[in-house]
């Protein structure tokens, strides 16, 4: 799943919470409608699901951005139970509920997870409703579900592809907000030329988290993503105006420091280590950190400086052993 900027992510959370509220309200209206008409067998699942979905809407609205969103799957389970127990297949209104399932699923889940969830749901649906299906209804259902699911898949996949394209064009990492690695080489040429022209120092600080695979195996992918976000935030807090953060790989960042000597770079390194050790959630990785402070030499080109800046001294020492 493509990660969105913080403002966009908050807006999406509010829109999704609003969708949950609307769904809870509609189910409550349906339960009341069946009650007024005396369809008592069809009241149970809409009436039972409505308050639970309302709770999920409140959770989605007020949950922290750092916490994992647990609402999509319970919502889809509740909606699936409503759909599977709402009425006969020959009722067109009931089939419209089925057509809504792929729309909602692709909206609240990433494309891959949504596709697997829909496959599971429709497999269960066919298993439980096979006795009600006659050939004409089956053909109509298959055509419409294929149409709705296909359109939703194309739209969601296109949206993710466009977000990836925008990320490349903006030069920003969508998860952390740091500049992407392909922006560094162009920026470094300009900064090296400026440093030599003004005879001002230029430094860089490579920040590498070793054994990130072990951390992911222990804590899970979601915790790892949050770890990178917190690391980027702390680097931004430690850095000064004019300093730039680049995400060089999955587990490494580079802090580009104009007008900074090697002594200033080492001071920033120590401050960064201290911030990591003081932060409870990051203290566990303090022993796995690799930091490489370097300063531009008078005879170096931008490529030579970048090669030296990206050389992890801990890995060189490990290879030497």
Q: Brief overview, please?
A:
It contains twelve helices and five strands. With 321 residues, it is α+β, with helices and mostly antiparallel strands. It has two domains: 6-170, no CATH class; 179-320, Reverse transcriptase/Diguanylate cyclase domain (Alpha-Beta Plaits).
What does this entry look like structurally?
It holds the Pfam family GGDEF. Keywords: Membrane, Transmembrane, Transmembrane helix. This is GGDEF domain-containing protein. The N terminus and C terminus are likely disordered. The chain has 12 helices and 5 strands. It folds into 2 domains: 165 residues, no CATH class; 142 residues, 2-Layer Sandwich (Alpha-Beta Plaits), CATH 3.30.70. 65% of the residues lie in helices and 9% in strands. The longest helix has 36 residues. A hairpin with a 2-residue loop joins strand 3 and strand 4. Strands 1-3-4-2-5 form a 5-stranded mixed β-sheet, sandwiched between helices. The protein is elongated and about 85 Å long. With 321 residues, it is of the alpha+beta class.
Instruction: Please state roughly what percent of the residues sit in beta strands, choosing from under 5%, 5-15%, 15-25%, 25-35%, 35-45% or over 45%.
Output: 5-15%
Low-confidence stretches: 1-5, 315-321
The ordered string of helix (H) and strand (E) elements is: HHHHHHEHEHHEEHEHH
Largest sheet, order of strands side by side? 1-3-4-2-5
Largest sheet: 5 strands, mixed
How many strand segments? Answer: 5
